[in-house]
Write a structure and sequence with these properties.
mainly alpha; 176 residues
């Protein structure tokens, strides 16, 4: 999982850090970190459910559901990193987000390897689709910002009437 997340997020983090105004991207960065957190949370919830089902297999069917639900509710969830301005202006936010999800890599492999039905893979796939949408949205935001900066740099400055007249007089050798 680390490799996949790193290949998608790190290039975007590098582009964002290179922006002349990276803090303007903070909402988009936070949204992407939220998506990584949601993905890690989905993996944690699936693992908690699988673990709870194993622990409760000896309990009668009438109590098993409540016990499983209680164990799932009490299971630890990933802590979303709180990003600082320094994290956002560098690529540290990506390191934090990838590290948060990487903690669940072994669980993901185990879940997919032990899945008796397609329910687990469907839920993982749904979580990955949400993450992919967030990555694509952030990439679009970076592209739009870069296009806007290029257009601004290429724009011909509009001279005021007074500046135009001064330039015309200066071209004729007249100084004010």
């Amino acid at each position: 999982m680390r490799t996949e997340l790193d290949s998608q997020i790190s290039p975007l983090a590098t582009r964002a850090a290179a922006s002349p105004t990276p803090l303007t991207l903070s909402c988009s960065i936070e949204a992407l970190v939220d998506a990584v957190h949601e993905f890690a949370s989905a993996i944690a919830a699936l693992e908690a459910r699988a673990d709870a089902e194993r622990k409760c297999s000896h309990i009668g069917i009438d109590q098993r559901g409540r016990s499983i639900r209680a164990l799932v509710d009490l299971a630890p969830r990933p802590q979303r990193p709180i990003l600082t301005d320094a994290d956002i202006t560098s690529d540290e936010w990506a390191v934090l987000a990838i590290g948060m999800a990487d903690a669940y890599d072994a669980e993901l492999s185990r879940l997919l390897g032990n899945a008796a039905s397609c329910v687990v893979s469907d839920r993982v796939n749904t979580a990955l689709q949400e993450l992919d949408r967030a990555v694509a949205a952030f990439a679009k935001r970076l592209d739009a910002d870069e296009r806007a900066r290029r257009r601004a740099a290429e724009a011909v400055p509009v001279l005021s009437e007074a500046d135009r007249l001064r330039a015309e007089l200066q071209a004729q050798g007249i100084t004010l």
